[in-house]
Amino acid sequence: MNTVELQPVIINTGTLVQAGSFGFCASQGKTPETTFSSVPPQMMVGYDDFFRGGKSPFACDDVRISIFRGGVKFDLTQFDRIAHAELLLDTMQSVTRSDGKLMQTQTPVSYANMLCVATEIFASNMLCDNEMPLPVGEVISIDVSNQVRDWINKRRNNFGFILGGPRPMFSAQTPPRDNDAKISWYNNVRLRVTYQKTGNSRVMQ
């Protein structure tokens, strides 16, 4: 058996923003944009909430939710078959905010808790399916052999992997009303592929 570590051909962060005013509102209120960002080869996963409550008894609340999902794609065209594939990445840093107050930790916290398979080219909403739990830690490793085989065998188009979490999806009519944030940044993303030389004549040695 041979093993090779592939570097991504694409790393991206999609940001889905949901903003609105709720309650007794005469007009749409303005909300600040998120101040968090990432630049490849980093990707960012988590959320950043903004909430400004109105005054009773006819309150109009302004809400903005920014949801971040990371996407990574590898070129697998050199393979005809594989024995095993493992996705690895490092948690570089994290931010936690509760009730508007930043909370510091000595080691980064991994808030991405879901890995899925992209169903289209990376975009702001980062659509995907085939979700599976993602382990947490500073160094993350997960078996993705079946997903990679589907791409190699052309059972699915290779649009890449997507990392999401930590909060479940919610209705646009009932967004969270808080000033919380949980965000993690990741780097050193690679795909470790184990294969046999036999049947993989196009693999670069």
Element layout with pairings:
Elements lengths: L1 E5 L3 E14 L19 E10 L7 E14 L10 E15 L2 E3 L10 E5 L9 E6 L5 E5 L1 H8 L8 E4 L16 E15 L10
Antiparallel strand pairs: 1-11, 2-4, 3-4, 3-11, 4-10, 5-6, 5-9, 5-11, 7-8, 7-10
What does this protein structure show overall?
- Helices cover 4% and strands 47% of the residues.
- The chain has 205 residues and is mainly beta.
- Strand 3 (43-52) and strand 4 (60-73) form a beta hairpin.
- The longest helix is centred in the last third of the chain and has 8 residues, at 145-152.
- The model has no long low-confidence stretch (mean pLDDT 94).
pLDDT < 50 runs, ≥5 residues: none
Overall average pLDDT: 94
Based on Cα principal axes, name the global outline.
elongated
> Helical percent range?
under 10%
Give Rg in angstroms: 20 Å
Number of E strands: 11
Structural category is mainly beta
Largest sheet: 11 strands, antiparallel
How many structural domains are formed by the residues?
A: 1
Number of helices: 1
Strand content: over 45%
User: What is the ordering of alpha helices and beta strands?
Assistant: EEEEEEEEEHEE
Report how far the terminal alpha carbons are from each other: 12 Å
